């Protein structure tokens, strides 16, 4: 796949050179990156991104070359960009600092972030390694960075990359539309806390396809404001399964709808497919379909929890996130494998 993309960018290079003859390939090595895994290459990546984003070319391409390891401190790749089609060829590997002191002076919410970049495609076999073990003992996950964040990135494509040992969530998308993730490999240790594979919030028209996700928390989590989410061909395990929610925790009107999960396998997960709503919450989760799901030794294959309260001090009250209709179509078991075909409609008010 990467070879095909390399040919593709070569064609783009030939066909889309600007009138001035300026290149549309921007290799981080040309901007001072070292790639030895020890030198801080953050400034070089920022400079290369600025040139890519400001390029007048129709298809500017940021190149992260193979056989290199790039150490990056927190970096934000901001848009909007001049082109409506931005490509990143990620052949090399990226690692986070291996000590907390290196994060001094930075916000502790994100490590690598793309914001306001439309038409972004990231493809390649490179690995993003969050070196998260130094963070996993933190009591509060909200003071721990997310590894890769996309904010207001419409028309987003992420394909073929590997993601390991995130500090917290491996990939998070917020306020994005028309997103396709495919052929990803996400794998921290199963004992790593709060290391969700993919988190989706306030986003629509999201497709997650043909990927392996094994984590210490949710393989995929779908939060409030999300709709038209299609998840197909995911191998999940270890982890906590694919979750809708939790919803209703902060007193707002939390909504999720049109979620379709198909042809997925859950192997030795704590839970399989689940919907989580807090006591006293307001909103709805509706038009949710789990279809052709396979469970292999999952502890709790199906959970609909309307009294979600993992930390104690619960309100012990009923809110307006209530189950209105649940229609099981077909559930059967062969040996220790569960197969699920379950339709859920209008879970909420």
From TrEMBL:
SUPFAM superfamilies: Pectin lyase-like
InterPro entries: Glyco_hydro_28, PbH1, Pectin_lyas_fold, Pectin_lyase_fold/virulence, RHGA/B-epi-like_pectate_lyase
GO annotation (BP), single: cell wall organization
Keyword field contains Cell wall biogenesis/degradation: yes
The organism's place on the tree of life at top rank: Eukaryota
PROSITE patterns: POLYGALACTURONASE
Residue ranges of domain Rhamnogalacturonase A/B/Epimerase-like pectate lyase in the record: 26-60
GO terms of molecular function: polygalacturonase activity
Family statement: Belongs to the glycosyl hydrolase 28 family.
Name of the protein: Rhamnogalacturonase A/B/Epimerase-like pectate lyase domain-containing protein
Organism: Gossypium mustelinum (Cotton)
Taxonomic placement: Eukaryota, Viridiplantae, Streptophyta, Embryophyta, Tracheophyta
């Amino acid at each position: 796949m990467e070879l095909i993309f390399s040919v593709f960018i070569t064609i783009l290079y030939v066909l889309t050179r600007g009138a001035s003859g300026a290149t549309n390939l921007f290799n981080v090595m040309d901007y001072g990156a070292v790639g030895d895994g020890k030198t801080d290459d953050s400034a070089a990546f920022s400079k290369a991104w600025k040139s890519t984003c400001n390029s007048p070319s129709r298809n500017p391409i940021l190149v992260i070359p193979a056989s290199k390891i790039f150490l990056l401190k927190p970096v934000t790749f901001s848009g909007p960009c001049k082109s409506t089609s931005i490509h990143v060829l990620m052949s090399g590997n990226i690692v986070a600092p291996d000590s907390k002191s290196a994060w001094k002076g930075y916000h502790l919410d994100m490590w690598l972030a793309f914001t306001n970049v439309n038409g972004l495609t990231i493809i390649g076999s490179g690995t993003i390694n969050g070196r998260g073990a130094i963070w996993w003992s933190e009591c509060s996950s909200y003071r721990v960075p997310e590894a890769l964040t996309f904010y207001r990135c419409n028309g987003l494509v992420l394909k073929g990359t590997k993601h390991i040992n995130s500090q917290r969530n491996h990939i998070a998308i917020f306020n994005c539309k028309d997103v396709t993730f495919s052929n990803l490999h996400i794998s921290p240790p199963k004992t790593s806390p709060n290391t969700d594979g993919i988190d989706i919030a306030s986003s629509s028209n999201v497709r997650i396809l043909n990927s392996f996700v094994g984590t210490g928390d949710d393989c995929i989590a779908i939060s409030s404001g999300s709709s038209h989410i299609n998840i197909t061909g995911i191998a999940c395990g270890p982890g906590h399964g694919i979750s809708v929610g939790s919803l209703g925790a902060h007193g707002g009107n939390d909504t999720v709808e049109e979620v379709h999960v198909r042809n997925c396998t859950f192997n030795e997960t704590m839970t399989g497919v689940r919907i989580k709503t807090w006591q006293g919450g307001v909103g709805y989760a509706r038009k949710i379909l789990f279809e052709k799901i396979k469970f292999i030794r999952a502890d709790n294959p199906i959970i609909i929890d309307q009294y979600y309260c993992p930390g104690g001090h619960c309100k012990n009250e009923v809110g307006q996130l209530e189950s209105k209709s649940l229609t099981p179509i077909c559930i059967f078991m062969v040996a220790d494998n569960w197969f699920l075909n379950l339709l859920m409609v209008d879970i909420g008010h």
